[in-house]
Please model this.
Amino acid sequence: MANSSGFKKVVLAYSGGLDTSVILKWLQEQYGCEVVTFTADLGQGEELEPAREKALRAGVKPENIYIEDVREEFVRDFVFPMMRANALYEGEYQLGTSIARPLISKRLVEIAHATGADAVAHGATGKGNDQVRFELSAYALDPDIRVIAPWREWDLNSRSKLIAFAEAHQIAIAKDKRGEAPFSVDANLLHTSSEGKVLEDPGDIAPDYVFQRTVAPEDAPDQPELVTISFERGDPVSVNGEQLSPANLLARLNEIGGRHGCGRLDFVENRFVGMKSRGIYETPGGAVLLAGHRGIEQITLDRGAGHLKDELMPRYAELIYNGFWFSPEREMLQAAIDKSQEFVSGDVTLKVYKGQAVVISRRSTNSLYSAAHVTFEEDAVYDQKDAAGFIRLNALRLKLLSRRNAMARK
Model:
């Protein structure tokens, strides 16, 4: 077809699955444009070379196929900064999907600049959060970038229509994609997220086969495993004394947490677009890491700084969930969080057992814990009589309020 859209070249976030394979062909037909594919290895545990073969079969030029291992960048520059904040959305979700989207958007925009593309495209639906995350990140990095979101444009609004389109265009379909898939999965090195189909009714118990990275806690080993994580300035640097790169460290904790059933979450969340959604999340390494990080903060972080961090955390987590990683407010909060981590260094030992990761010891040369002050034995550093004045001063306003209120009731 003649190209009247103005799009000559488009960079597509491409997995090689049914949706993005259909999108690739749809872009070629709808816009008559050249397509550049970008496939990111975020540690999802899948072989990515088939995506190259599928793109080639769809007519994408070899030089326009980008398959990149971004696992180290993902953990170092996105997961670890988030972990310094102990971020949880709505008190439970470790933001595994949310934190991957800004990195994908960053590379889409960079590849668009490098290849002279007119636009970027993604396969997120018009009902979800990911469309917001992809596009807010892209516009923050390039205010003039154009974004194509096929799910908001086409009439292929069902799985059966996607399959019919694929068959009509001789697009290979995985056998498990025929008919109704049992659920949808997003995965990276931090987590797996499963949604839809058999999980849509929050009143139904999720079937066991949904879980992919963790054994059921009741089936986990009957003996606990001790794990020591060393931290430097808030970031983990070693496990059981072995120095590991960020991605390898998280992978190691995934192995440990996974075999003990850690990090399972059945969660009904409030999407940014307004609806509630039920998902099954697995974050085995993240659960162990979060517990360990809070453990080292307990002895190295001042009370005022720690309490302020806990107050800021929900706002920080919400910004990531809603797609505002590249916003000035997230960067401002990150600066405050990173400042708090200046002395958060030391070793934490956890007991990992039957779905739980529990801190059992903490050591740091930067510790604020003073045994001399908290001992129940006789000491020479704390005069207990000082507490009387402290209490009187703090009680003063309460006494004045009580007297005022008593007079008002007479």
User: Anything to note?
Assistant: The mean pLDDT is 94. The two ends are 87 Å apart (CA to CA).
